[in-house]
Design brief:
6-stranded antiparallel sheet, N-terminal domain of TfIIb, binds zinc ion, mainly beta
Length: 102
Amino acid sequence: MTSCLPCLNMTPNFGTSRNGRPVIEMGPYRFHMWSGSKVAAYAVSRFGKPVIQYQGHRYYKNSGSRGVKLLWRCVKARSKNCRATLHTVNNVIYSLNNEHSH
Ligand SMILES: [Zn+2]
């Protein structure tokens, strides 16, 4: 599989805008959180890792995920053996496995 998109090799940078809203910077691009229904609400866990709050569940970024397309796992993946995951592309949720075990 090949891809000519240069941004696939970029690592998103999670930060906060001047008015306190979460932003993601990726190369020359800058993404703002907004209240669209399919847009992930990004936050930061108490360990300083990015998390997504979506439909009442929280997701951690999979540590192996890089680039534009990211895999996120439910925070209860270990403690409750939860298999729910979601994928984001450019800050937008494009697929969701909503099978939570809890
Ligand atoms: Zn879950």
